[in-house]
Amino acid sequence: MFGRKINIFEKILLPVGIALTFLGFYLILLAEQSSSLLNWIRLATLFSWMMLLFIIIVTATTEDMKEELALIQKEHVTEIKILKEISHDQLNEIKLLRQDLQKRKK
């Protein structure tokens, strides 16, 4: 249809996301082993930054989807215009056929 290509950002996003997940689990285990309040606060700060990063990624992905939908909408507008022209041509043909039939009846 449109053949949208995957950009570098999307190619890197999956492995980075998986790596961050494993890093997060590892950091939780380290904080649990040390059971220090300061480690838990650092971990909470780190996850807050990760959530901010996640929101930015979701925003970028949403923007890509919006661009794709704009392309699809433009394509649909041209298709609708073509269908309107075809319908108008068919109407003209029907009118001409009616006129021809009326002439033959007389």
The percent of residues in helical segments reads over 70%
Strand tally, please?
0
For the largest beta-sheet, the strand count, sense and barrel status come to: none
Radius of gyration using CA atoms only? 30 Å
What's the total helix number? 2
The structure class reads mainly alpha
Question: Any idea how many domains?
Answer: 1
Mean pLDDT: 83
- Reading the helices and strands in chain order gives HH
Q: Which regions contain 5 or more consecutive residues with pLDDT less than 50?
A: none
Q: What share of residues are in beta strands? A: under 5%
Overview of the structural elements:
The two termini are 52 Å apart. Helix 1 runs antiparallel to helix 2 (37-105). It is built from two helices and no strands. By secondary structure, it is an all-alpha fold. It has one domain (8-105).
Key phrases:
single chain, 2 helices, mainly alpha, 106 residues, 0% strand, rod-shaped
Question: What's a quick, concise take on this entry?
Answer:
The protein is mainly α and 106 residues long. Helix content is 91%, strand content 0%.
